[in-house]
Amino acid sequence: MPKPPDLRARLARAKLPGTPPEMVERARKILLVFYDKAQFQGANSDKLLRELANGAAATGIGWIELQSTPEPEGLDCAQGCAFCCILTGDDGGTITGAEARNLYEALSPLAGQPDGRAWHPKACPSLDPETRMCRAYAVRPMICRSYVSTDVKACEAVSMNRAAGGPGVRGAQTTYLTALALCRVALKGVAKVSTYSMSQIAAAAIDGEPLNDALKSARQSHKSLDDERKRHVAALR
């Protein structure tokens, strides 16, 4: 395992071809601040490596950006709306290892209970099917925290695979994905940086699968993170 100075140097020189330099440098700068602050506070190299690899660092960076930037005006989001929780994509929502574990731990006490799939077959299992409220709201992943809309009817249309204006994702999601991708490049040959399907992790927890089995079955291909990151980068252009 690299010593801390070497690990920092890896983060400093990691490259993401095809991504606007300003996006890469923004994410890199915050990652290095995270690294230096953790070291100053006495974090050992094992803990630093673990938080970079499991996405805890990238997730924290996303949260900071969400809190430090103004929320868009005119949002039409409301409790129980939940159209954004109908996961129309093939990947089921891309999340980090740390987010996957937190989501599983929040939902596993509900094993065997009805879930969001009783409302809609492609709904996130985290939902209560009666209230359409998220039962893992406190630990919801960045993909959920960053999604916003100014038109609930447009959200309903999108949930039925119809294009509509109104829904969108805040820039923090792109920063989070870019930071995670930088960690993957920096840690190549040192530690694996995996992503997971949010819906599969939630379903496994509700269905009573053991955590390790859930992580194994929900682990996405290496290509998934790059595809998701490039999609968000393209949307911001």
Overview of this structure, please?
It contains eleven helices and four strands; from the N terminus they run H-H-H-H-E-H-H-E-H-E-H-E-H-H-H. The N and C termini lie far apart (38 Å). The radius of gyration is 18 Å and the shape is globular. Helices cover 52% and strands 5% of the residues. The strands form two sheets. Strands 1-4 form a two-stranded antiparallel sheet. The chain has one domain (4-236). The model has no long low-confidence stretch (mean pLDDT 92). The protein is mostly helical and 237 residues long. Helix 1 (4-13) runs antiparallel to helix 2 and helix 4 (56-68) packs antiparallel against helix 8.
What is the compact description of this entry?
This protein is mostly helical and 237 residues long.
Total number of beta strands? 4
Shape: globular
State the end-to-end CA separation: 38 Å
The class by helix and strand makeup works out as mainly alpha
Mean pLDDT figure: 92
Please give the largest β-sheet: 2 strands, antiparallel
**What are the secondary-structure elements, in order, as H or E?**
HHHHEHHEHEHEHHH
Strand content: 5-15%
Going across the biggest sheet, name each strand in turn.
Answer: 1-4
Helical content band: 40-55%
Structural domain count: 1
Q: Segments where pLDDT lies below 50 for 5+ residues? A: none
The radius of gyration computed from the alpha-carbon positions, rounded to a whole number of angstroms, is 18 Å
Number of helices: 11
